[in-house]
C-alpha cells in the first residue's frame, strides 16, 4: 500500500530493518521548515491570509518534527522505507538540492558539536596530517550511521567519500538527494581540518556511475 502525498506511512518488508539514525529525517524536516519561513514578517501581519501555506509550515510537518525529536531522544533507528518516503516528499520541491545540502551540513555540525570542547581544542593544535586523518574517521562514522548499512568508503589524497547503493539513490534516481552527502561531507572536513571545504560530486549513479563519489576541495578565499 503506497502512502498518500504529505504522509509518511512506511512500507513493510522483511528486509526493512531499522538502521538509519533519526537525526537525518529530523534535520531534513527542520531545514525544510526553516526555508519556508518568510524572511520578514510585518507587525500585525496574518500569515494565514497573506502567505499561501507552504509544506514546511504545515501541521503535517510540525507533527513529524515533533515525532522525530522523540525518536532522537529514544535513539530509535528508522527503517529505510520511512526515510525514502520523506526523501520523495522533498524532491518534489524546486529547492530540493538546497534543502538536502543544508540538511547535510546541519547533521555534520550536530556531530561536531557533540565532541567535547577538550577534543576540539586539542584537534586545533594538531598538524594538518592528523587533522585530515581525524576528518576521515569522523566522516566514516557519520555516514555509516546515516547510510542504513550500505557500503561507505573514505579515501585520502584527495579526501573522498564513496557510497554504494545509498538510500538516497533508491529514493531519488534523479540525484537531487545526493546533495545531502555533499553538504555533510564538506562540513565535516571543514570542521576537522579547520579550513572551508566543498565536496563536488565527481561520480553519480544517477548519471550511470557504479557508485557515488564526492571529493573534498578547499574553498578559494576571495
Q: Could you give a quick summary of the protein structure above?
A:
This protein is α+β, with helices and mostly antiparallel strands. The chain has helices at residues 23-36, 47-50, 59-73, 80-90, 96-113, 117-124, 128-146, 167-171, 179-193; strands at residues 152-155, 160-163, 197-198, 201-203, 212-215, 217-218. The protein has a single domain (23-218), classed as H-NOX domain.
What is the element string, with H for helices and E for strands?
HHHHHHHEEHHEEEE
CATH topology: H-NOX domain
CATH architecture: Alpha-Beta Complex
Q: Classify the oligomer.
A: single chain
Overall pLDDT level: 84
Strand order, sheet with most strands: 1-2-5-4
CATH top-level class? Alpha Beta
Amino acid at each position: 500500500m503506497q502512502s498518500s502525498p504529505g504522509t509518511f506511512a512506511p512500507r513493510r518488508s522483511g528486509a526493512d530493518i531499522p538502521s538509519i539514525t533519526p537525526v537525518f529525517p529530523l534535520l531534513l524536516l527542520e531545514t525544510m521548515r526553516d526555508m519556508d519561513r518568510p524572511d520578514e514578517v510585518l507587525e500585525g501581519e496574518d500569515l494565514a491570509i497573506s502567505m499561501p501555506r507552504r509544506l514546511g509550515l504545515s501541521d503535517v510537518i510540525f507533527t513529524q518534527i515533533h515525532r522525530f525529536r522523540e525518536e532522537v531522544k529514544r535513539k530509535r533507528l528508522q527503517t529505510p522505507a520511512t526515510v525514502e518516503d520523506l526523501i520523495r516528499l522533498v524532491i518534489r520541491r524546486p529547492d530540493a538540492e538546497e534543502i538536502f545540502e543544508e540538511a547535510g551540513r546541519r547533521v555534520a555540525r550536530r556531530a561536531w558539536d557533540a565532541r567535547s570542547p577538550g577534543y576540539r581544542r586539542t584537534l586545533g593544535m594538531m598538524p594538518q596530517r592528523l587533522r585530515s586523518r581525524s576528518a576521515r574517521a569522523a566522516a566514516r562514522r557519520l555516514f555509516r550511521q546515516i547510510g542504513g548499512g550500505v557500503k561507505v568508503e573514505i579515501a585520502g589524497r584527495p579526501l573522498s567519500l564513496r557510497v554504494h547503493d545509498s538510500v538516497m539513490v533508491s529514493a531519488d534516481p534523479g540525484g537531487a538527494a545526493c546533495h545531502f552527502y555533499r553538504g555533510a561531507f564538506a562540513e565535516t572536513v571543514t570542521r576537522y581540518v579547520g579550513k572551508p571545504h566543498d565536496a563536488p560530486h565527481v561520480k553519480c549513479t544517477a548519471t550511470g556511475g557504479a557508485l557515488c563519489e564526492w571529493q573534498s576541495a578547499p574553498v578559494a578565499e576571495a
